[in-house]
């Protein structure tokens, strides 16, 4: 076995994984409230050191050949950093300043309803006066957000002006109507991307009150820096080409060893 071939191969696979994540970030750079993703990887020596200290496999014979001789692709992660604000002057456009997520009553294709979370505050009002997302899912009030109650919806008067303060309290005709449901999580490792710019709570995760301020007439843009993502894409392309050239070089060396040295 020529180990250099496998090392270069794992390098190319790792760069392809990085490229997939970056292209997804760039595709969502204009998506309201989108949080960019990143990748991790481990070298051979890091994995070997971990295996040596892993007491869970004590006295279990593990040949070194079961480990990759190159780069090991790690887990992807999400950067929950604050995005920039964009003023829209739309009364139903909301942005969170701080840690937290809007709670949404999401109905899947199978008709099952569950609570999801999002940073996208581009809300609207349906014909019945309910506050909904642009996809038609109901926005929950604070009780629904904290108790994961998908039926705690917010109904407004379509003919009255809507005013929302920094705590998410909604007023119409100088009367309190409801409070926007905003929840946070003590450990973000327990939330996962669901799709459609939504997040869901994983098993074992807990909810806590958010300290974020609600801004009316403003939307939070994605936290993707297009320039840095493009620079990293160029870096990935060059690293991929380097691994490709390494494979070509080793292939040429093997060709010489097999087809020419044997003739001498």
UniProtKB/TrEMBL annotation:
GO terms for cellular component: bacterial-type flagellum basal body, rod. It is found in: Bacterial flagellum basal body. InterPro entries: Flag_bb_rod_N, Flagellar_basal_body_rod_CS, Flagellar_FlgE/F/G, Flg_bb/hook_C_dom, FlgE/F/G-like, FlgF, LlgE_F_G-like_D1. Residues 5-35 form the Flagellar basal body rod protein N-terminal domain. One of its GO terms (biological process) is bacterial-type flagellum-dependent swarming motility. Keywords: Bacterial flagellum, Cell projection, Cilium, Flagellum. Residues 216-259 form the Flagellar basal-body/hook protein C-terminal domain. NCBIfam families: FlgEFG_subfam (TIGR03506), flgF (TIGR02490). This is Flagellar basal-body rod protein FlgF. The lineage of its organism: Bacteria, Bacillati, Bacillota, Clostridia, Lachnospirales.
